[in-house]
Amino acid sequence: MSGVLGIFEQREDLLKAVKEARTENLGPLEAFSPVLDEDLIEAVSPGKSPVRRLTLLGGVTGGICGLVLTIWTTAQWPLLITGGKPLISIPPFLVIAFELTILFGALGTVSGFLYWSIWARHRRPLPYDTRFTQDHFGLWIECPSVDTEQVVKFLKERGATEWEIR
Amino acid sequence: MIKRRDFLKVMGVSGPAALLEACAPPQTEQLIPYLVSPDNIVPGVPAYYTTQCRECPAGCGMLAKTREGRVIKAEGNPNHPVGQGHLCIRGQASVQSLYNPDRFRGPLLRDEGGQLRTTDWEQAEELLTSRLGQIKASGSEQRVAWMGRLLTGSMEQLTRQWLQSLGSERLLFYETFDYEPLRRATQIAFDRSELPSYHLQDARFLISFGADFLETWRSNVELMGDFQRMRKARSTERPDNFVHISQRLSLTASNADWWIPITPGAEVQLALAIIHSILEQGLAVPEVDSDRGWIESLVEPYSPEATQNATGVEVSSVQELARRFSQDSPSLALGGGVSSTGEQAVSLELAVLLLNAVAGNLGKTLTFGIPSALDQLATYQEVLDLIQDMNQEKIEVLFLHEANPVFTLPQSCGFAEALEKVPLVVSFSRLPDETTARADLILPDHHFLESWGDFSPRAGVVSIQQPAMQPVFDSKATGDVLLSTAQNIDGMASEFEHSNYFDWLHAYWDSEIRTQVAAEQSWEEFWPDILRQGGHFQEVEPVTVALRNFSTQIRLQPEGLEGPEDGHALLVYPSAAFFDGRNANNSWLQEIPDPVTQLVWDGWVEVHPESGREMGLQEGDVVTVTSPYGSVTLPVHLFAGLKVGVVAMSLGQGRSGELRYASGRGDNPMRLLSPQAEPESGSLLWRSVRVTLAKTGERHQLVSLQARPQDHPRDTLIAREVQDTPFAEQIFPSQLSDSASGEEHDTASSHHEPIDFYPPHEHPDHQWGMAIDLDSCTGCNACVAACYAENNVPIVGKEKCAQGREMSWLRIERHLHDPPVTQESALVQPQVTSVPALCQHCHNAPCEPVCPVFATYHNPEGLNAQVYARCVGTRYCSNNCPYKVRRFNWSASEFPEPLELQLNPDVTVRTSGVMEKCTFCVQRIQAGKNRAGREERQLVDGDITPACAQTCPAEAILFGDLADPDSRLSQRVADPRGYHLLEGLNTRPAITYLKKLVPEKPFDEE
Amino acid sequence: MSSTDRPHNLSPDPTTTRFGRVNRDILGTLHPGRLYFAALALCLLGIGWGVWSWVQQVNNGLAVTGLHNPVMWGAYITTFVFWVGIAHSGTLISAVLFLFRARWRTAISRAAEAMTVFAVMTAGLFPIIHLGRPWLFYWLLPYPNQRGLWVNFRSPLLWDVFAIGTYFTVSVLFFYLGLVPDLAILRDNSTGWKRRIFSIASLGWSGSTREWKHFNSSYLLMAALATPLVISVHSVVSWDFAVAIVPGWHSTLFAPYFVAGAIFSGLAMVLTLIIPARKILHLEEYVTPSHLENVAKLILFTSLIVSYSYVIEFFFAWYSQNPFEQTVFMSRLVGDYAPLFWLMVVCNCLTPMLFFIPSARRNTALLFVVSLLINVGMWTERFVIIAGSLARQYNTTTWGDYGPSWVEWSILLGSLCWFLFWFLLFIRHLPGLPIAEVKEAMIHGSPARNSLSAEGQP
User: Fold this and answer.
1) DSSP for C167-193?
2) How far apart are CA C440 and CA C458, in angstroms?
3) What is the CA radius of gyration of chain B?
4) Which residues, other chains included, contact B701 with Cβ-Cβ below 8 Å and sequence gap of 6+?
């Protein structure tokens, strides 16, 4: 795949570039930033992250596992009466269920993060400049090689200090 | 009447088998398989041997429980009239004296250098025979003397005959505590030189003048049983029927309804005052009309008014005592006891006998004609004569048998010095003691659980003593020593047809007893039956006696005490655990707290807090106690249960020598006593000196297992503040006042339906439970010792006791509500309640749900089970136990060789880091089920008895099945006196306590 | 092909240079001097001593401790509760304040999160150390085993196992998640094997918008999960006591009371760690007095809740007319435990009152001293509650006092060193401040201004 990676020093320039690239729909975009920048996210890929679905899934699974584990294991040895309490004494079991809800929820969330942001990126590698984690911004515009020049021009005009053609 | 299972217990027993069975080696390291198994040893199944306790002269019947050829537990013999199946703390602990690690490994001989050297029996006996041979040859008289414990029957016969053939009559039966004043008094009053027998169970009112019959006086187990029968009969309206008169709140006194702390020496006057008042109120029985004249003139000067100053007892009280003593007929007055043996001892006994006569108790609660073995005891005077002869070097050989006179005689009488004058001192002692330290030849005797023997505590009771196991060490039965030496002395062998004691015993029983009691039976019929029963028992008809005028012989001038006027009268009393010190090296007895003071592992001098304040003495101050005859150094224990002006010391501690448990604890009061004998009876003057206390400036930690609020809990003194503490309301709705009034009773009774958050759980087959009658419990600690023995409970020693790490599963909490002597009247309520505290096996046990690994849970039979193997030691269960009956193994427990032989193979020895507690003797429950199973029957009530209930001489503990509505237990828990500890917590314990009955009104109030 | 014929724009650029400086400053903290290694060595020494003492305990049994009837729990459980409490503030700052959008948290969040992880690691040691048979600790875990026996889920100790286990896992994940962008920074600033390690650790983070998007959402969700968790964890710990029938433990008040106490003590510990750290690592510009002041305000707030709980406890005891409760609380007021009780009142209730004075809140030295006092006070509080109540239960004849033995003190010291050891490793190898977040704060305006903003209070 081919495209152009422009490197910006000004966050504002980048934002502008992204917005205009969208209007001129220059093709798929990806921006790079050293910081979490909600405006940028909104501009590049609007919409909600799907991670929360995995969180919910994990939480529910955890809760069920908690109840199943406690009730099933207790039923394994029905002789064990303690303190005059019934075998299946729900109140204490709820504590276990709750903790497992949280645990599985958290695990779901993290796996969501790994899947969508880490794994997704590994599947679809993009050019990268180490300065992105430091103090520079970047904009990758994917395009058929014919009008690379046009894209470069576009980026130059928007204040990109460097560019790289792939 | 022998119960079926008791019969089965002893079924497999027969004499030769008893000898033969002992194939199991005492050393655990050699494992010898049974190639040809003895017919009466089934591995895993206990064999019971009837024998009898020889820890003291009382002679209770005993069953020795053996497993794989070793004794693991001592229990009372239910067929035996003495003890009736129960044992006291000392009897329970006798297994530890059997396996005592300090016992002599074999015979010892003192060499030229004066060192004791181990030798073998041949050498030892050779030396003995040569010396005795010379004496025998020389034909000189009275050169050999024997001083030993009370013997009857075959052993007495043997010893006497043996000495006679050596030309000596000198056979002194020496016991530290004799009853000479009483015997002398009966001689004077009734012309019978024998101890009377008492029938407490028939008495309706009891006055004891210093007789501590629940601890050591005469036959304490038997008397405690009788006492309880007497108490059970009393009315709840007027529950007070026992008055104790003494200077110290002994265990017996603390079980009295009324205690009269009396000035030493005033007892006689009080007794006479009561007689005076009886006559005055015209309550005397007609039988004494003939003697009325001299009695009236005798008591004339002792009107209640006249004696009030001396005795401190109000006229009204004396009159009430007189009234109740004569009207609640038959009543009984007991007199004597070590601590009241002063110059007036005989007079006191006379007065008491007269009191009984006047109230018409003769032939009812007080009978004659049943001579006691104690009548055979030598008087202290005879001992003094012996000492004199020893000093005059008239004695060439002195035999000491189960006696430690150097320790138990007043040091001032010079016995130790006199020993130096005796060329050959032979001791048969099993343990190193003060006397063996001076002996030339030590021929260790068997323990009574290892040897044959017989003993007749009183007429009509002849018990057999069977060896229950192979000797632990290289000891030899004294009877065998006597016979084998006799064989080797010229001219002696002929006089003894038997060469070993077993044959001698057989012959004796055949000739002396069978012919007497069962002439029609053949020996083969007779003997196994004796072994099964544990002896031969029959009722002996008492004889009637006539009162004689002894007004001239009664000594009425008040007794004097030697020593400085400003001093304190010294009171020496026998230790409930150590008796006269013979048991001091027994680790259980050292660790089980003293029943009165709750102190462990120590000796002390008891000082009244008031006197303490005057002398500026604190608890634990080390003082030098000085009498005209010597001095001892002891820590002070402030004890409110004393007559002011008296200090008390128990006999038993202060042992010297290499005794790992006893040495270096406390001191021996015998250093302080006067050497004089009581002129009238020739008994030892126990109460004869005043002492002075001087601070040494040192401090000594006295350790009590019972915490006291306010002060540092591990500090000493009984928890007398318990009344003002929250626990009191919970543990003592136990006063009668509550149970009488209904609404308070609701809070205390166990019969209202508790409200539970969860549905109840059922116990289909059994629900084990227990009832403990606080009114019966005397706090004697026998159950505690039984628990130690049954459940392999380790001892931890004084230091860990001080840290609160004792392991006792069962403890007797002694609650003394308020200091007794603060009360106005001379008659004070001791207000002592002894509460046996053990795992309550709660229906809703708080300890169970908190255990993360199910190490403790509720089993289907209502037991709160503790699974040691499963325990990881979070100790949460103990935190959550409101009764604090769980014990944690802070470190690995130790059983010094050969004590490990005593361990009960049915009970795990717990490892370090696990929790343990009372199991209701689950191994016995299992055994009971197995037995029922083998006999193909259902469990019946009484099949299962835990160790504590089994031994309880007061029968205060009842175990049974709550699921069975007809069980004795179910009936007893329905008693209106029933309540649960800390009932408000709704833990619903399986143990029901029955409240103590205490008088509500002052004594002389109608 | 790349074209570089065009010269760079050399005009100084605010964003870039400021970001650059942030990197330099914060990454600069990762090269400490001699003092650091001395401290590290000391910690290792302390850990060694603690381990040796513990070996003594395992060999000789718990007899070497001061524990006895009836005080079965003592210094170990006290310290367990103490460290669990410490952990809580970390989560509070990183999660709860995040949800509250209190941006000033940035300055201390990273350190606080690290502290949480290490505190839980320390706390987790004690339930095992205190066991009678510690080698069997795994019997508390529910796994199929040959004993054919599972665990008793009715036991609060099991709740602990799950609560602490969950809490540790979630804290670590949360900590790591927040660390990923910074790890990428470290990667791009390092060379050789370090670079390799960091590139693995940073999961190849590139800062692309999509990564940031999912990162943002995950972080938010984790915070949302951590918040109820942190409350549940200390509630569960408090139930170890509250569900027991021990007078002085058996109280419905315990959960909120303990949670407040936990956050209270944790915040104090944050100050104890941060104040010296910012000096030594020259982070005054990033961790400003205003940040510390906000923490001080939180401390004051939680201190008031804790004090209120103390009062209410006594009210309950009095109002219930339960003699046993009253006995316990009297023994705290005037009994054997009074000295400790009053010490804890001074440390936890009185000294924090200083923070009503604005100048006191901004006085670093004073903050440090007070934070130390609160640490002591909170340990004492747990000690009084645990040992003090156990020593005065229903049956007066079984009362008994408790004091830790040298073994217990040594193990406690060891655990403190263990905690500091990990914290030292952390400040040496990972940025003590979340670089990306600091930069993020910049694009929203200068960190200083935000930290001054009043949105500090939850």
Assistant:
1) HHHHHHHHHHHHHHHHHHHHHHH--HH
2) 21
3) 28
4) B620, B802
Contact call for residues B350 and B188 (beta carbons, < 8 A): yes
Contact by Cβ (8 Å): A88, B759: no
Q: For B492-522, what is each residue's pLDDT tens digit?
A: 888 888 889 999 999 999 998 999 888 898 9
Asked if the Cβ–Cβ distance from C397 to B813 is below 8 Å, we say: yes
Q: Within 10 A of B248 (CB to CB), how many other CB atoms are there?
A: 25
Residues C312-343: tens digit of each pLDDT: 999 998 998 888 888 888 888 888 889 999 99
CA B624 to chain centre: 29
Selection from C177, C183, C145, C171 nearest residue C430 by Cα? C183
Q: Distance between the two ends of chain B, CA-based, in angstroms?
A: 44
Interface ipTM? 0.90
* Contact assessment for residue B168 and residue B143, using Cβ atoms and an 8 Å cutoff: yes
Helix (H) or strand (E) holding C43: helix C34-60
β-strand pairing of A29-32 with B535-537: unpaired
Question: What is residue C252's three-state secondary structure?
Answer: coil
8 Å CB contact of C397 and B883: no
pTM attached to this predicted model: 0.89
For C149, C380, C399, C416, the CA distances from C408, given in Å and listed in that order, are 33, 15, 22, 12
Neighbours of B757 (CB within 10 A): 10
Token reading at B917: 């507690």
Kindly write down the DSSP assignment for every residue of C298-334, as one continuous string: HHHHHHHHHHHHHHHHHHHHHHHT-HHHHHHHHHHHT
Place of tokens 């990454």: C27
- The token pair that represents B339 in the structure block: 């601590």
pLDDT tens, residue by residue, C165-177: 999 999 999 999 9
Distance set, CA B805 to CA B269, B429, B783, B881, C388 (Å): 49, 34, 20, 16, 18
Enclosing H/E stretch for B173: strand B171-173
From CA B395, how far away is CA B135, in angstroms rounded? 11
Q: Count how many residues are written for chain A.
A: 166
Neighbours of A6 (CB within 10 A): 27
Q: Chain C within 8 Å of B806 (Cβ-Cβ)?
A: yes
Mutate to test the interface with A, among C5, C9, C153, C175 (most CBs of A within 10 A): C153
Name residues 79-118 of chain A within 8 A of C (Cβ): 80, 82-83, 85, 89, 92-93, 95-96, 98-100, 102-103, 105-107, 109-110, 112-114, 116-118
Which residues of chain A are within 8 Å of residue C154 when distances are taken between CB atoms?
82-83, 85, 89, 92
Whether residue C74 contacts residue C66, with contact meaning beta carbons closer than 8 Å, is answered with yes
> Token digits for C45?
């020494």
Cα(C139)–Cα(A71) distance, integer angstroms: 18
Which DSSP category does A149 fall into? Answer: H
Fill in the DSSP letter of residue B623. Answer: E
